[in-house]
Every structure is written in structure tokens, then in C-alpha cells.
Amino acid sequence: MSENATVNGKTPADFWFDPLCPWAWMTSRWMLEVEKVRDVEVRWHVMSLAVLNENRLDELPDEYRDMLENKAWGPVRVVVAAQQKHGDDIVGPLYTALGTRFHNQGEGPTREAIAAALEDVGLPAELAEYADSDTYDAELRASHQEGIDKVGQDVGTPVIAVPGSDGEQIAFFGPVVTPAPKGEDAAKLWDGTLLVASIPGFYEIKRTRTQGPIFD
Fold first, then answer.
1. Which of 54, 62, 146, 131 is nearest to 94 (CA)?
2. 82, 91, 112, 171 — which has fewest CB within 10 A?
3. What is the C-alpha to C-alpha distance for residues 22 and 104, in angstroms, rounded to an integer?
4. CA gap 72, 5 in Å, rounded
């Protein structure tokens, strides 16, 4: 099957996320809205802020470096373990459970929040143990690299890949948006994303962020 077709014929949108990233969370909630208003199916993949930054830790502020070293590995490892043991279809629901607790409910990436998210989606509690295990780090890194290979190194999370003008996948960092658009606004942003993906040589639109993530 082509990477640009799904079993049900819907337009695919491949989405790479780190559960820790509030901006990826905003964009992911937009994509769930897009599924309601356009014939689109999101395919969820993990990427890792810890992997992305592992060779530049000395350049980062102390607080961010501490987060990457002590908090960033656990959630993505648990998601990958769940995927390996229970299939691709669990990735999206588990991300929603984790993100809702981390961001909307303000629990943060604690072990208690991870355990509760696993329970929320009916997954075994012992999956939480993979937060401290490198058992599936090769699979985590492969998923991360797949997204980075599509978009390049000068990005963070999220990464989204959509069909371009001739059907090939075009990947972007973002869109970065808050709050997550709903209804027709979600549809318009999706249509715009497909539009810029259809333009050969298009790379970037950007402005300074003046507002933080709004969780609703």
C-alpha cells in the first residue's frame, strides 16, 4: 500500500509527537478536529525531544536540559512499548490520555499520570515500567528518525506529513497554533496546509509567538 493512501481511502496525515510538548498537543487536537470535518485519517508516530537534543545538551538552559534528561524519556518509551505490544491503533488513544493528564489537567509527566493514562485506555499497568527501560529504544529512535528524515534537522515537535501536489509526502514542523482550531477554522487550516504542501519549493511561514498554549 502507498504511504499516501489508507485502507478506507481517506487522505492520510502522518503526525510525529512527543507527549511532553504542549505545542504538539495543540496541533494534535486540531488534527482530531480535522478528522471530523474532512475525509482525513491521522496516523500517529512518536518522536523524541530527548533524542532530538541529545547531542546539544551543553548548549541548552539548565531547566530544559534537566527536563530532557529526567522527564522526556519515560512517556515516549511507554507509548512505544504499548505500540509494540498492542499495535499501532493504541498510539492515538494513549497519546490523548497522556496529553489530557499532562497538559489539560496539569498533572505533568509524572509516573502517576502515566499509570493513570494507561488505565484510562485499558492497557496493563506494567507498561509503566518501560519508562525506565531501553527495551524499545531502537524502535523509538527509528520512529523519530522517520519523521526527521522527512522534514530535516532544523525542527522540533510536532512534525506533520501530508500529500503534496503529485502525491509524494511533504513534511512540515507545525502548524503551531493555539488554541486548537475547531469546526470550520480547523478545516480552513487543514486546507491551507495542503495548499502550501502543493507548492514546489515552499518551506516556511513564521512569526513570533505572543501567546502560550491554551488548553481547552
1. 131
2. 112
3. 10
4. 32
Q: Are 39 and 66 in contact (CB under 8 A)?
A: no
Which run of H or of E encompasses 146? helix 137-151
Pairing of strands 169-173, 159-163: antiparallel
Residue type, 135: T
Q: How many helices (H) and strands (E) does the chain have?
A: 8, 4
Give the DSSP per-residue string, 117-132.
HHHHTT--GGGGGGGG
CA distances from 134 to 73, 165, 199 (A): 9, 40, 41
**Which residue type sits at 97?**
A
Give Cα separations from 73 to 34, 46, 52, 137, 155 (angstroms): 29, 11, 11, 9, 19
First to last CA, the chain: 37
Q: What are the φ/ψ torsions at residue 172 (nearest 5 degrees)?
A: -135, 155
- Helical segments of 152-214, H only: 183-197
Q: Is the dihedral of CA 86, 92, 97, 99 positive or negative?
A: positive
Helix H or strand E segment including 62: helix 62-70
Pick the closest to residue 11 from 33, 39, 35 (CA basis): 39
Kindly report the CA angle at 14 between 185 and 136, in degrees rounded to 5?
Answer: 135
Q: What is the pLDDT of residues 48-76, one digit of tens each?
A: 999 999 988 889 899 999 999 999 999 99
d(CA 211, CA 176): 11
Q: Is the pTM of this model over 0.70?
A: yes
